[in-house]
Amino acid sequence: MNSYFVQATVADIPHIWSILQGAIARRKADGSQQWQDGYPNPEVLQRDIKSGVGYILKIGDEIAGYTAILINDEPAYAGIEGAWLTNDDFVVFHRVAVAQEFLGQGIAKKLLTYIEAYARSKGIRSLKADTNFDNAAMLATFEKMGYQYCGEVWFRGNPRRAYEKVLATIP
After folding, report:
1. How far is 15 from 99, CA to CA, in rounded Å?
2. Which of 72, 110, 112, 157 has the most C-beta neighbours closer than 10 Å?
3. Spatial contact of 23 and 12, defined as CB atoms under 8 Å apart
4. What is the arrangement of strands in the sheet containing 158-166, beginning at the earlier edge strand?
5. 3 state SS of 53
6. Spans of all domains in the chain
7. Quick check: helix, strand or coil at residue 80?
8. Distance (Å, rounded) from C-alpha 7 to C-alpha 12?
9. DSSP string covering 111-156, please?
10. pLDDT tens, position by position, 38-63
11. CA-CA distance, 48 to 44, in Å (whole number)?
């Protein structure tokens, strides 16, 4: 099946919200504290889409995953307890979520691969992200995809593990 990585539209919101609700429930079932405080929520999702930072991964006609991608836009990253690998422009991504029916098919890895292509298309070599200490699935994905642990950042009063991947020279 063909996959496509495209900007999300307002029409996609109900399906994306369903995917996020499933991810929130899975985090809870896994015993994770991540996403158990009312975030993300429909307002965050609507803001992503209206700001043009929400992206979906489609497999055929189905939405398989969602993420928000921003450039140089994460104020919490300035206060890292540790050190980033680079101090240049960076792409940051948040709210990575995979639809229930696509679990176990490498969709998170595919999303991160598309995010790398997005960064390259903008001439940016640095990808930065964070996740909760107890989000085993995302921690494993970062490791598999070559991200390096850089330290801790704080969101809504909680520490998060911060990662960076520096891409090879952009052609």
Report:
1. 9
2. 112
3. no
4. 3-7, 54-59, 62-71, 90-98, 126-131, 158-166, 148-155, 81-82
5. coil
6. 3-166
7. coil
8. 10
9. HHHHHHHHHHHTT--EEEEEE-TT-HHHHHHHHHTT-EEEEEEEET
10. 999 999 999 999 999 999 999 999 99
11. 6
3-state secondary structure of 97: strand
Of the candidate CATH numbers 3.40.50.300, 3.40.50.720, 3.40.630.30, 3.10.20.90, the domain formed by 3-166 belongs to: 3.40.630.30
pLDDT bin (cut points 50, 70, 90) of residue 157 is confident
One-letter amino acid for residue 49 of the chain: I
In the block, tokens 């896994």 appear at: 30
Q: Tokens 């609700």, residue?
A: 21
Torsion angle in degrees (nearest 10) through CA of 142, 148, 151, 157: -20
59 is written with which tokens? 């497999």
| Cis-peptide, bond into residue 171, ω within 30° of zero | no
What is the spatial distance between Cα 112 and Cα 40, in angstroms, rounded to a whole number? 19
| Residue 112, CA atoms < 13 Å, CB-side half-sphere | 23
- 66-106 pLDDT tens trace: 999 999 999 999 999 999 999 999 999 999 999 999 999 99
